[in-house]
Amino acid sequence: MLQEIIAYRKVAAQLDELIDKSPYKKKYIIEQLGLSSPTYYRKLQSQTFTINEMLAIAKILDPLEYNKWELLEEIEQAKEDIRNGKTIPHSEMVKRINAKKKDI
User: Fold this and answer.
1) In whole angstroms, how far apart are CA 46 and each of 17, 21, 24, 95?
2) CB 57 within 8 A of CB 28
3) Cα angle, residue 15 at apex, residues 41 and 26 outer, rounded to 5°
4) What is the rounded distance in angstroms from the CA atom of residue 90 to the CA atom of residue 96?
5) Which of 17, 41, 59, 95 could potentially form a cystine with 66 if both were Cys, beta carbons 3.0 to 4.6 Å apart?
6) Average pLDDT per 10 consecutive residues for the chain, totaling 104 residues
7) What is the Cα 5 distance to its own chain's centre?
8) Is 62 helix (H, G, I), strand (E, B) or coil?
9) Rounded CA gap, 76 and 78, in Å?
10) Closest Cα to residue 44, out of 24, 16, 86?
11) Is-contact 11 45, C-beta < 8 A?
12) Looking at residue 77, what is its pLDDT?
């Protein structure tokens, strides 16, 4: 856990540089975060972005890496669901898909 915290602190400290090197303007990132400019710059200076804000910035700066992470998280959740018996038979899934097709 300590390694993850230190890695997070390192990313937070380098965030301004990462944003400057990105093809995106700061104004765009600020708009996507839904923050005011003063709040954005205060959080950037004090390194106090929330985890959700950091994830939103990561999604903007590196969408491929973010999508890969998101997919891996979904796979892990699916594996856990299988281990916990949260599954349905194939025939039931086919019925659900067919029902949705009819609604379209």
Assistant:
1) 14, 20, 21, 53
2) no
3) 50
4) 10
5) 59
6) 90 92 94 96 93 94 94 95 91 90 78
7) 17
8) coil
9) 5
10) 16
11) no
12) 96
- In degrees and rounded to multiples of 5, residue 12 shows phi and psi of -60, -40
Structure tokens at 91: 């025939």
Which of 61, 52, 59 is CA-nearest to residue 14?
61
One-letter amino acid at 39 equals: T
Taking the CA atoms of the chain, what radius of gyration do you get in angstroms? 20
Residue with tokens 């090197």: 21
Residues whose CB is less than 8 angstroms from the CB of residue 60 and which lie 6 or more positions away in sequence, other chains included: 22, 24, 28, 29, 32
Tell me what percent of the chain is helix, strand and coil, each rounded to the nearest 5: 80, 0, 20
Give me the residue label for tokens 């937070």.
12
Q: What is the rounded (10 degree) CA torsion for 35, 30, 45, 21? A: 170
